[in-house]
Design brief:
By secondary structure, the protein is of the alpha/beta class. The protein is built from 17 helices and 26 strands. Helix 2 packs across helix 3 and helix 9 packs across helix 10.
Length: 605
């Protein structure tokens, strides 16, 4: 499949060029909220605002610029690209059509649409209709996905035929559905066809009048529900407000240096939505977003070079695939201005490997955050290289300084509900504890999960509500945050506490170790700290025994690991389903428990 290279042009988001008014689009804000965006002074909660207005403003500036180019497959009308005018018009058409159904503003709508132009049309159409997209990662598995859908109690379903067929076969998980929109032909379940909705408007008509609900949304209203991957616990629906989306878009533009008119290779569907709000052309590559570690590097490189991509978002697993291929083929990505990698800790050696394929002017940035809060901190490749030695010595992974308008603090570790913390409870520089954060990109709660919400929120010394991230770390004298691992994955014994990222870094220094994972095996209060090793190559039993002695010598050389003596070898680690980059240590712990002959602490698993 081939597409024409995108060549967008236009004024920057900070431009003083007036935005053309379109009476059919009123009431919409004419002033661009990003022009004078200040994360320290977020938009007032009761202010009228809808995140889809950023798409309309971008379309008014450059209607003919490509908004989406797909190399993965055509949209419902057989097209491989949409201009900004088309995306704005067609999402408004969907909003108007679906608003005439029995759905009402605030109703939740499950979205089961693959990456591509239709995905953009659907999401922005729902935003405009003041409906709440519920986005569930299909890679989490059918059982977990269905539980998330049942929990969300959606009133609408927008999806491909397969999604609607599943809803007919397993109706108990879809009992709340009152209206459907199908990408393709309905097979008797009724509702609307996205193709027919779009075909009923002229190809290049002026922007159609949005439904009245579009002008009724407030900044504090729920805009979407994004489910966590469930990699370290139950999948939870994080509530995103319109103001939270605005803060994310503003911080991404400010922190990553993104200017209007660039081309973004969108390898993660949710992150790619920001492209349209920022005036970029989103290029959807031919890859399975659920399995980035298995992507074909030739296709990705073809998309980067062919579409002259200026930005790339890649999980660490995808970054590794590209780095290996680019370095083997001696490729330099001359058009890339920035590369953003997130979803899991990015090892310093991977950053160094991929940086070799970039020009000296390009930036490789790694933000830290979570589904419930992103971005919170940012660090660039140059600073990662400066502190690489500390990471390899077990001090944790430096993830940079807080982004503008956000605060980070380290408090004593606690597994239960914690109602508040005072200034005196903030741990001093250098001491490992629990990471908490405050700022406008933080989700206010989980959907229909009061217990998890209570566990994750805490009142700070300023009286504001901070979020507990479930991560452990420390801050240095320069105000940088160091990540030491997930709180739930630390191994606590009667004599000491082992932190995953800190301990694993010691063993990752061994030349034959691809990666390692610290797990606890055995009942409390004295579980055994076990390190599972994934070697680069298969080895004989004698070679493994020799390697174990070398690993024990490494362990004794560092105070963080000196008491670790048990090592196991496993060919392929189980990884998270969203980015293929986080090690599923819970699964490894169960495997190690069985292998070492201990009783299963959770018989259901």
């Amino acid at each position: 499949m081939t597409t024409e290279p995108g060549s967008p042009h236009g004024p920057s988001l900070g431009s003083t060029e007036p935005i053309p008014q379109n009476s059919a689009q009123n009431p919409l804000p004419i002033a661009d909220p990003l022009t004078n965006f200040n994360p320290s002074r977020p938009i007032e909660p009761d202010s009228p605002f809808n995140i889809a207005s950023l798409l309309t403003l971008a379309a008014a500036r450059h209607p003919d610029r490509p908004a989406v180019i797909t190399r993965r497959g055509p949209d419902c009308l057989g097209r491989f690209r949409l201009s900004y005018a088309q995306l704005d018009n067609e999402s408004s058409a969907l909003a108007k059509a679906i608003s005439q159904s029995e759905l009402e503003p605030g109703d939740r709508v499950v979205v089961m649409v693959p990456p591509g132009p239709d995905f953009f049309t659907v999401i922005f159409g729902l935003f405009k209709a003041a409906l709440v997209p519920v986005m569930v990662d299909p890679g989490m598995g059918i059982k977990r996905m269905l539980m998330c859908l049942a929990e969300g109690q959606p009133k609408g379903l927008v999806g491909i035929k397969l999604a609607h067929l599943v809803s007919q076969i397993l109706p108990k998980f879809f009992r709340s559905i009152r209206h459907r929109v199908t990408l393709g032909r309905s097979l008797g379940w009724g509702g609307q066809s996205l193709r027919q909705i779009i075909m009923n408007i002229p190809e290049f008509s002026p922007a159609i009048e949005p439904p009245q609900a579009y002008s009724q949304t407030k900044a504090s209203d729920t805009a979407a529900i994004l489910f966590t991957s469930g990699a370290t616990g139950p999948a939870k629906g994080a509530i995103y407000t319109h103001s939270m989306f605005l803060a994310q878009v503003g911080l991404i533009r400010h922190s990553f240096g993104i200017t209007d008119g660039g081309v973004d290779l969108a390898t993660f569907p949710l992150f790619s939505l920001f492209s349209s709000a920022l005036g970029l052309t989103a290029v959807i590559p031919n890859m399975n977003p659920v399995k980035p570690g298995q992507a074909d590097p030739k296709r990705l490189v073809s998309a980067i070079i062919g579409e002259k991509a200026t930005s790339l978002f890649a999980s660490p697993a995808l970054l590794a695939v590209l780095a290996r291929y680019a370095n083997t083929e001696k490729i330099t990505f001359t058009t890339l201005e920035r590369v953003i990698s997130a979803g899991a800790p990015v090892r310093p050696e991977l950053i160094a490997d991929f940086s070799a394929a970039l020009t000296p002017q390009a930036k490789l940035l790694t933000p830290y955050g979570a589904t419930e809060a992103m971005p919170l901190t940012i660090i660039d490749a140059a600073e990662v290289a400066q502190v690489r030695g500390m990471t390899e010595q077990g001090f944790g992974m430096c993830v940079g300084r807080p982004v503008a308008g956000h605060k980070m603090a380290i408090i004593p570790i606690s597994d239960g509900v914690k109602e508040s913390f005072s200034e005196s409870k903030i741990l001093p520089v250098g001491e490992i504890g629990e990471i908490v954060a405050l700022g406008p990109v933080i989700a206010p709660s989980y959907f229909e999960r009061p217990e998890e919400t209570a566990l994750s929120l805490i009142t700070g010394p300023d009286g504001q509500i901070w979020r507990r991230l479930g991560d452990l770390g420390w801050q240095d004298v320069q105000g940088r945050l160091w990540f030491c691992g997930r709180k739930s994955q630390r191994v606590v014994t009667s004599k000491c506490v082992f932190f995953t990222v800190c301990c694993e870094a010691i063993f990752n220094n061994h030349p034959k170790v691809r990666r390692s994972a610290l797990v606890g095996v055995g009942p409390p209060p004295d579980p055994i700290a076990v390190v599972v090793i994934e070697p680069y190559k298969r080895m004989s039993k004698s070679a493994w025994l020799t390697m174990v002695e070398e690993l024990r010598t490494l362990a004794r050389s560092n105070p963080r690991t000196k008491t670790i003596t048990t090592f196991l070898s496993k060919k392929n680690f189980p990884m998270d389903i969203r980015h293929n980059a986080k090690i599923s240590r819970e699964k490894l712990a169960l495997w190690a428990t069985r292998l070492l002959g201990f009783p299963n602490p959770n018989p259901k698993n």
